[in-house]
Amino acid sequence: MTKPQKDNLFILIRSLTKSEKRQFKLYIGRLGVNEDSKFLLLFKVMEKLKLYNEQAILKEGFVKKQQLSNLKAHLYKQILISLRLNPSHQNLRIQLREQLDFATILYHKGLYKQSLKILDKAKAQAITNQEKNIAYEIVELEKVVESQYITRSLSNRADELTVQAKMLSRQNLIASKLSNLSLQLYGLFLKTGYVKNDTEYQNVTNYFNKRMPKFELKELGFREKLWLYKSYLWYSFLVQDFKSCYKYSKKWVDLFYDNEPMIRLNPVFFLRGYQYLLEALFFVKHHKKFKTVLSELEQIVLKSWFPRDENIDGLVFLYVYSNKINLHFIQGTFKEGLPLINEVVAGLKTHSDQVDEHHVMVFYYKIASLYFGTEDYVNAIKYLSKIINNKSLQMREDLLCFSRILNLVAHYEAGEDYELDRLIKNTYKFLIKMEDLYAVQREMVAFLRKLVDIYPHQLKAAFKSLLQKLLTYENHPYERRAFLYLDIISWLESKIENKSTADIIREKFTKLT
After folding, report:
1. Cβ 203 vs Cβ 210: under 8 Å
2. pTM value?
3. What is residue 438's DSSP assignment?
4. How far, CA to CA in Å, does 232 sit from each of 178, 181, 245, 279, 324?
5. How confident is the model over 309-325, as pLDDT tens digits?
6. Environment class of residue 159 by beta-carbon count within 10 Å: exposed (0-12), middle (13-18) or buried (19+)?
7. Could you give the CA distance from residue 474 to residue 462 in angstroms, rounded to a whole number?
8. Residues 197/149, Cβ–Cβ less than 8 Å
9. Cα(502)–Cα(268) distance, rounded to whole angstroms?
10. Nearest-5° angle of CA 378, CA 381, CA 383?
11. Is there a contact between 135 and 168 (Cβ–Cβ < 8 Å)?
12. What's the CA gap between 371 and 137, in Å, rounded?
């Protein structure tokens, strides 16, 4: 089956709301000459398409194939201009940029005093709202305008602007270095996952320390602190220091509550802070706090003042449903979590343009784990196959590896022994490509390989033997992460005690609470 063509213009048009489409048509129709223009005809045709189809567009006869690319580019630009004028998209950054543009126009007309007045007001607003990159641009333009607009106070003004420029430049440099470090650590995490041994730990620590800029904490504003906490958070995740993950994700969220206007200005970072806080609480097994924080997140995104757009709606879906499923994993309430699956599948379809493929695969792994917990191994295998057969996914080797391990266990539980030999060989081939494996992964594959030759009356002893081996890794600084992907210990205990995995996890949860 061929994949449907993806086209940026078509995706943009599909993302428009009814009011945005109406505004675009009004914007285009402000001049009568545009009413029958080719780009408006193209918009009307593409608006009706369910899937992008270039042949259907060309059949309309108003554009030739060689002209279509330029016409699409023009329409794309006109839609963006219309969206920029839409009040729902008028955020602070756009307003500040607009003021900077107005001041530049006035300067080129020789209206220096008017230009400086706009710049001064915009600069104060930018600094108040931590928009220091724009503030620096404004100061640089002020310096240019002041050099043309001669007044008696120029010497004092020059000193004032020079000090402001130096301060903003220094803060922007720190923020840039911290944001670079945060992004590099995140990229490392997506590629390799968590550190697996002392060598990797030392390499990541040296990498982190070498790139951490020197600064005084008191000179950092909101933005610089945000990037600082993000950098420490990603370092803590990589080295599996989950208590530090909790510490810095909590600082991240608290930073927003200490600067509440920033929640409206930076809702994406605010939501991500909550996501990492929930992830850290899940890892440190602070279940009561996890439930409270998840409830907080669900409530705050429903507030009337909380910003909403397609991107934010996609993130809210991603973070809320991911952690709703995690709550069922914590409590062992797999059966009660099954109704979420249809909601997640529908949500992935609705937010297909906002949720990237990696996060789709993470959802599939969680869905497979839910089915596994209810002993529906056929559906577990179905969703694991979607991950294993995805040849385009080039990240998170640990996720791909554990998908294969869980797939082996699911096939064994489903009684599909005839598939085990082939699957074990394929899994080995995949694992060989990985530079370092968790000891837990090696033990599991070796165990499953032996299962084919074990007699039924020897099974319980074999499960007990594997359990004793794995228990030695449960609190290991590098190996313990494996049990968060796949609760093998609870599965083994269920086989030994003749109970369901869900019952074992529920009993543990009851003891903890």
Report:
1. no
2. 0.77
3. -
4. 10, 9, 8, 15, 26
5. 888 999 999 999 999 99
6. exposed
7. 19
8. no
9. 35
10. 115
11. yes
12. 54
Cα–Cα separations (whole angstroms), residue 453 to 160, 404, 415, 432, 441:
82, 21, 14, 24, 20
Any idea which residue has 């449907």 for tokens? 4
CB-based contacts of 307: which residues, under 8 Å, 6+ apart?
264, 267
Q: Are 179 and 227 in contact (CB under 8 A)?
A: yes
Question: Are 509 and 287 contacting, i.e. CB atoms less than 8 angstroms apart?
Answer: yes
d(C-alpha 370, C-alpha 167), whole Å: 52
Residues, the chain = 513
**Residue 393: φ, ψ to 5°:** -85, 115
CB 505 within 8 A of CB 490: yes
Phi, psi of 401 (to 5 degrees): -65, -45
**Residue 456 class from Cβ within 10 Å (0-12 exposed, 13-18 middle, 19+ buried)?**
exposed
For the chain, the C-alpha Rg in angstroms (whole number) is 28
Confidence category of residue 94, pLDDT binned at 50, 70, 90: confident
Cα 1 from chain centre? 29
* Cα–Cα distance, 291 to 76 (Å, whole number): 44
Q: For residue 2, what pLDDT is reported?
A: 44
284, 277 in Cβ contact below 8 A? no
How far is the C-alpha of 406 from the C-alpha of 483, rounded, in Å?
12
Question: What's residue 368's pLDDT?
Answer: 93
304 contacts: CB under 8 Å, gap ≥ 6: none
pLDDT tens digits, residue range 210-235? Answer: 999 988 888 888 999 999 999 999 99
**330, exposed or middle or buried, with CB in 10 Å at 0-12, 13-18, 19+?**
buried
d(CA 405, CA 446): 11
Label residue 243 exposed, middle or buried (CB < 10 Å: 0-12, 13-18, 19+). Answer: exposed
- Per-residue pLDDT tens digits for 1-45: 445 557 899 989 988 888 888 888 888 877 655 555 888 889 989
